């Protein structure tokens, strides 16, 4: 899939509040997808730090796009498990969200997501996911 198709999917497949994250698809290849999550005033908490809820939503969304990339089209799915570890706070820069599919079977898919500072490349959150393929 190309970047434009995945970007359109963000507008067509996701709830308005997810669209409000203003995620931008930056890359899509055999290794998954890479999105940019802008650091906006609506997504920060005390101390001007990107909130964990925004990172979790971005991670979940990125993995759906990674599954689209993997299968070559949207396939209905639902999150079964999303486990995250927050490594450090992120402030004063956008986030890069890299999602990749580890394995996709007939009924389940497994993936991992790394969220890092867009400017410095330092990891701020790691997540693992399991999706039921419908």
From TrEMBL:
This enzyme's EC code(s): 3.1.2.-
Pfam families to which the protein is assigned, alphabetical: 4HBT (PF03061)
Species assigned in the record: Ottowia pentelensis
Source superkingdom: Bacteria
Keywords of the record: Hydrolase
Thioesterase domain: residues covered: 54-115
Name the record gives this protein: PaaI family thioesterase
Molecular-function GO terms, alphabetical: hydrolase activity
Similarity annotation: Belongs to the thioesterase PaaI family.
Secretion signal span: none
EC top class, as a word: hydrolase
